[in-house]
C-alpha cells in the first residue's frame, strides 16, 4: 500500500472551556503575545449510523484561511492524546474539494478508518455537521517547550440547530510536555477555565443526532501488557480511567444533569481512587493530596444518587407491598453537579493526575520492575480477596457499617482485577471476573435498601405514612442480606486467577 502524502503526528492537546466572564481578558492576553486571527470552516463526515464516532474517529475537510486540509483523527493513549493525519489540498476552482479516503491510506489513523468502515452497516460517508470558528492563535514557549495556544469562538451547526464554541486549546509542539501542564495549571487556576475533553466532533455528533449531550462514557479495558514495569502499568491504567472521568465530567460541566452522566462520573472517580490506592506504590510521583478533592466530589455526587437512583430502585418493592408512600420527602442536599464538575480544586487535581499519567518518569525515578510489579499486584488482589471472603462468611450477622465495608472492598477488588487482567489472559481470569459482577450487584441491591430505609426513617418524623415503608424495608433487608451472602459464597468458591 502506498504511503499517504501529508503529515502524520500524535497530538497532545489540552482543551478548556472558557467562561464568558474571562473571555475578554483571555483575548487581550493572547493578542499581547502576538496572536493572529484565522477564520476556519470545517465539514465533518460520518456514516448514517455514526460508525466513525463510535470508533473514536473524526474526518473533516477544513478551510483554514484560504487553504483546505483534509484531516483524520483517531483516539490515542489518553483522553488528551490523538493520532492525526493532515493532507493539504488544492482547490483551484474555488469550490470545496471532494472527500477522498485514499489520502489517509498507509497511516495508523487510516487503518483505523478502514476498520470502522468495514464494520459499518452502511459504509457511505455523509456530511453530518459543520463548524464555523474564528481562531485566535499564537506560539508560546513555557519552560523552553513550544506550545500553540488557540482560542476558538464560533458555532457547530447540524439539522438547523446550533451549539456555541468557546474553547481554548493548548497543543504541545515540542520540548518537555510537563511545561504544557504547568502552563495549563496556571491558566486554569487564575482564569476559571475547566478541562473539556469533548471534541468538536463528539459535540457535533450529538447535535446531529438531535441531542445536547452525548452518551455517557463507561469504563474500558486498560491497555497494559505483560512485561511492563510498575511505572508504565500505573500510567497506562490512569490514562484509561481518566478517559471515563473526564468525558463524563465534561458533559456534567456543560450542563447535563442526566443520571447516567453523573453516575459514570462517580464510578470513574471511584475507579481512579482505586487505581491510585492499589497501584500507586508501583512508581514514584503519586501525590497523597489528590485523594481529598476526589473523595469530596465522590461523596457529594453520592447524595444525588441516593435521592434519584436509590428511590427508583426500591419503588417496585414498595409498590408491590402497596405502601402508602413510595418516595421519602426529606429534602436532599441541593447539589449543583455542574458547579461540582467545574470546581477548581477537582479540576486542578484531575489536571495533575493527567500530567503524571501522560508524562515519562524522571530519569532518576525508581519504579518496580515487571516481576516486582506483578508480585505487588498479586499481594493486593490476595488481601482484598481474603477480606471480601471473610466478610462474606458472616455477612448476615455484620453491622450495617461492616456490610458497607465489604461492599467497598468488593468494588476495589473488581476494579483492580479489571485493571490488571491482561497480565493473566486466561479462562480463569474471565471466570473470576464474571463472578465479581453478581456479587457487586447483590451487595448494591442490599445497600440501596439500607439507604432508603434510613431516608424513610428520617422522613417519618414529619410524615407518619413513611413508617410503613421503613418497616417493610427493614424486614426486606434480611432477604437482600441472604442474597448477598450467597453471591459472596460463590465468589469464595471461584478459583483465583493469580498466584502469590
Question: What does this molecule look like?
Answer:
The structure is a single chain. The protein has helices spanning 20-32, 51-54, 108-119, 177-191, 200-208, 230-253, 259-279, 291-320, 337-342, 344-358, 370-393, 400-420, 427-459, 466-493, and strands spanning 7-17, 36-46, 57-64, 67-75, 81-89, 126-140, 146-158, 161-174, 194-195. The protein contains 14 helices and nine strands. Helix 11 packs antiparallel against helix 12 and helix 13 (427-459) runs antiparallel to helix 14. By secondary structure, the chain is an alpha+beta fold. A hairpin with a 5-residue loop joins strand 4 (67-75) and strand 5. The model has no long low-confidence stretch (mean pLDDT 91). The two termini are 48 Å apart. It has an eight-stranded antiparallel barrel with strand order 1-5-4-3-2-6-7-8, surrounded by four helices.
Q: Strand order, biggest sheet?
A: 1-5-4-3-2-6-7-8
> Helicity level, as a percent range?
40-55%
Residue-averaged pLDDT: 91
Beta-strand content bin: 15-25%
| Poorly predicted sequence stretches spanning 5 or more consecutive residues | none
Order of helices and strands: EHEHEEEHEEEHEHHHHHHHHHH
Rg over alpha carbons = 25 Å
Number of helices: 14
Structural class: alpha+beta
**Strand element count:** 9
What global shape is seen? globular
Largest sheet properties? 8 strands, antiparallel, barrel
Give the CA-CA distance, first to last residue.
48 Å
